[in-house]
Amino acid sequence: MQSYGKVLNAVKYAGGIILTLGIAIFLYGFFGSDYSAITGIGIGTIMGAVFIFLMGVFFVTTEEMLEKKYKGVHVSPIKDK
Fold first, then answer.
1. Is 76 inside a domain boundary?
2. 73 found inside a domain
C-alpha cells in the first residue's frame, strides 16, 4: 500500500508542475506575445499534464486491482446435469 501512495504523489507533483508551466505558457502566449503558436503550445502542455495525471491514476488503480484479484471466495460455475 505504501508504494501506491508514493507513485500517486509523484504523479500528482509532476502533473501539477507541468500544469502550472502550461498555464503560464498559455497566458504569456494569449496576453503577452504576438505569436499564436505559443498559445497552442500552452494548451498542449496543459493537456499533457492532465494526460500524465490520468494515466498515473489509472496505473495505480490497475496495480491495486491486480493485487486484490486473488482475495475473496472462489466461486465455480454450476455444472449442468
1. no
2. no
Task: Return the sign of the alpha-carbon dihedral for residues 7, 10, 16, 19.
Answer: negative
Nearest C-alpha neighbor of 19 from the set 56, 38, 37, 44: 44
Range of 49's domain? 11-62
Report the number of distinct structural domains present in the chain. 1
Report in angstroms the alpha-carbon separations of 66 from 2, 56, 60. 16, 15, 10
pLDDT digit string (tens) for 38-50? 999 999 999 999 9
Do 49 and 15 form a contact (C-beta atoms < 8 A)? yes
More confident residue, 27 or 79: 27
